[in-house]
């Protein structure tokens, strides 16, 4: 799990400080990414003795990783008319601004449809996005975040919302049948119980995962059944799923990570933002909604967009970073960074009513992608499937332990190197501290 926390630090050290997502409600804080990595927010991770005693080892000094904290998207990072809607909603709702922002973007991308796109290495990319909103519990106000966004989309296009936003996905065949005869091939799948969709994917022969991956990749989706093959051309399918962390960790199979379904999604960690005993109010959204309506109408037949010269130069500078894939499970989940950033940049350009993708659109997209990376790192920062890691984690739930007590858990049947490895795999969940006045160390859960 060191990969996960290390990635958080890497992402935060990006060279474009103006784009970073700093915690909201901190008006005096710097917008620099490094402002989040103060000495107080770093922890010292346990370094195995074998490495620490080696003068040539990069671990001969204490390692510092960013503490895994709840990812936040600052209100300053919200871009364009969609961002303005969320800025006005944020103070008067318990819903997470990031969850509202991403869901609004998914809805707008669906509303625009297949008439605007960009090309990347021969592949056509439209503004259809997939997003999964994860909360610790059912009280994360995921449903509230969608209700707020749904009301905005209702003002923009009630017939589309009524006819083209559907729920209840159980099979790929059912998905195709649900709209194969519709003249309008835009479809926004809203799954408030995304765990049920993941459960369906576990059934032998179920084609949900295959069809969703086809839907994200291109405009044709098909199931080639022996007697009655079915397909839809020019499909423009978007997805919003809601799930709790325990459900996600229980139901998301490793195969859905390795086969690429997970990396087609933007992952958003949502939490209850504030307590409003009397409920939230209704802000004045007239101006930004009018701007969005004008932008959506003008974008529907915009055709192919390309990056302008300045954006091409910026793209060349950030492309290598986006192409880098961290090792392990998290790397598989974040392995479509280039495509995700460009789809977001396309959408931001369309909402700005531009005929080209500019630097501002790339920067806004990169800022949101970095937030989604931090969210994914937080969401999937679960303990590794190492039985020794599991044993230590379970023991620590009863209270802190000294390192000697940790070693004693295995009754002399585990080598020191194995225990050291287990501790390093748990660094997202534990803190190892020096015992004052002693050379010993104590381990506790965060």
From TrEMBL:
Polar residues bias: start-end ranges: 18-40
Region annotated Disordered, chain positions: 13-40, 50-69
Bias (Low complexity) ranges: 53-63
Name of one Pfam family that matches: DUF3987
Stretches of the chain forming a coiled coil according to its record: none
InterPro entries registered for this protein in UniProt: DUF3987
Descriptive protein name: DUF3987 domain-containing protein
Species this chain originates from: Prosthecobacter debontii
Lineage: Bacteria, Pseudomonadati, Verrucomicrobiota, Verrucomicrobiia, Verrucomicrobiales
């Amino acid at each position: 799990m060191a990969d996960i926390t290390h990635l958080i630090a890497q992402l935060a050290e990006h060279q474009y400080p103006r784009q970073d997502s700093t915690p909201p409600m901190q008006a005096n804080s710097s917008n620099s990414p490094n402002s989040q990595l103060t000495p107080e927010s770093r922890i010292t991770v346990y370094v195995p003795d074998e490495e620490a005693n080696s003068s040539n080892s990069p671990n001969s000094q204490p390692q510092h990783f960013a503490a895994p904290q709840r990812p936040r998207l600052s209100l300053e990072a919200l871009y364009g008319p969609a961002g303005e809607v969320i800025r006005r909603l944020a103070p008067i709702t318990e819903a997470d601004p990031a969850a509202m922002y991403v869901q609004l973007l998914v809805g707008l991308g669906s509303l625009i449809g297949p008439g605007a796109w960009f090309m990347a290495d021969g592949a056509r990319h439209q503004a259809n996005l997939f997003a999964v909103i994860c909360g610790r519990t059912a009280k994360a106000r995921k449903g509230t975040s969608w209700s707020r966004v749904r009301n905005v989309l209702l003002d923009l296009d009630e017939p589309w919302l009524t006819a083209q936003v559907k729920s209840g996905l159980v099979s790929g065949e059912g998905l195709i049948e649900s709209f194969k005869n519709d003249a309008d091939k835009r479809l926004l799948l809203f799954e408030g119980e995304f765990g049920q969709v993941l459960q369906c994917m576990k059934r032998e022969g179920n084609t949900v995962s295959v069809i969703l991956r086809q839907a994200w990749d291109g405009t044709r989706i098909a199931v080639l059944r022996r007697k009655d093959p079915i397909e839809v051309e020019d499909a423009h399918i978007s997805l919003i799923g809601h799930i709790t962390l325990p459900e996600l960790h229980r139901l998301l199979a490793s195969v859905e990570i390795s086969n690429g379904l997970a990396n087609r999604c933007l992952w958003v960690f949502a939490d209850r933002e504030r307590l409003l005993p009397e409920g939230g109010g209704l802000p004045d959204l007239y101006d930004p909604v009018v701007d969005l309506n004008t932008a959506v109408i003008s974008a529907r037949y915009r055709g192919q967009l390309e990056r302008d010269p300045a954006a091409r130069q910026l793209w060349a500078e950030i492309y290598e970073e986006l192409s880098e894939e961290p090792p392990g499970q998290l790397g598989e989940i974040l392995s479509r960074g280039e495509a995700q950033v460009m789809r977001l940049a396309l959408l931001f350009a369309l909402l700005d009513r531009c005929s080209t993708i500019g630097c501002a659109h790339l920067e806004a997209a990169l800022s949101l992608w970095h937030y989604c990376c931090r969210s994914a790192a937080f969401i999937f920062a679960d303990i590794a499937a190492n039985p020794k890691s599991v044993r230590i984690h379970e023991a620590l739930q009863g209270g802190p332990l000294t390192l000697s007590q940790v070693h004693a858990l295995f009754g002399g049947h585990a080598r020191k190197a194995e225990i050291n490895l287990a501790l390093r795999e748990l660094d997202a969940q534990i803190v190892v501290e020096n015992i004052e006045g002693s050379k010993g160390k104590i381990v506790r859960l965060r």
